[in-house]
Amino acid sequence: MPAVTADTLSLPRVSAAAATDTERPVRSITTGPRGFEGEGFPVVRAFAGVSAADLDPFVHMDQMGEVEYSPGEPRGTDWHPHRGFETVTYMIDGRFAHQDSHGGGGLIADGATQWMTAGAGILHIETPPAELVDSGGLFHGIQLWVNLPRKDKFAEPRYQSIEGPAVRLLSSADGGTLVRLIAGDVDGWSGPGMTHTPITLAHNSIEAGAQLNLPWPREYNALVYVLSGRGTIGPVGHPIQQGQLAVLGPGDRITVAADATQDANRPAMEVLLLGGRPIREPVFHYGPFVMNSKSEVIQALDDYNAGRFGAIPPGALMPHRG
To answer: Which amino acids are annotated as binding site for Fe cation, given as ranges?
Structure first.
């Protein structure tokens, strides 16, 4: 189960809907295909098959795991470059080590979030710590790519470490949902993440038979991804389950309800809510570079090959293979 938990009865509650509020309808539901990333860790490609216009300002999202590794099995990524966007790594359970060429780094563990602004260019590595590789263990998280507008593409790289206890904890109006607000605002409450692009990101545990209904900025898009469990979404109650992403239409509020029966090992429906103000600029995405044009991507490749993204530090973190 998620590392960060709380008694919802003691938390601030999200306000109930007003008579004038409208519910966001479901525009599409897609199922993410499974694949492998980095040195071979399993992922669900959450955004596969969804148009870039519906995702804006997001570019890419992988659900990493959930997997229980045997000794010697955990895998991550080796050193690689990024430019033009932000990477958000949220570890729901387990541990991931990070280091970058601008001095950022540390252990992302048990409900913590690493928010790295690549901006003008950075090298980094994300890999399971050596002790996890040797022992095996649970690994479950999310990596999200958030686009940067043209004016911020060459911003100074920045690293934020958001520990699990730092997230804003809220409760749904009925007390049946724990809302973990990582970034952005919900009903006047703010998460700790600092973002160039205005977005909201929240992880929600909806108890079996409970319903989450919360306000969402009209100027933001709205995406709902089911990490585990099953239920319904939207005013009509479209069925949705683990590994599926719903794109919602315009409105004031989002409604997700958990089925009365969930899997025995997952008593709650785990849902990620994310949305942001669309940038509405051209996007040219090639590998680890997210720019506005092909020529800018070619320049990024030239700059990377010329060593302008920084250098791997002496004695740097490296993948441990047991």
So the answer is: 80, 82, 124, 126
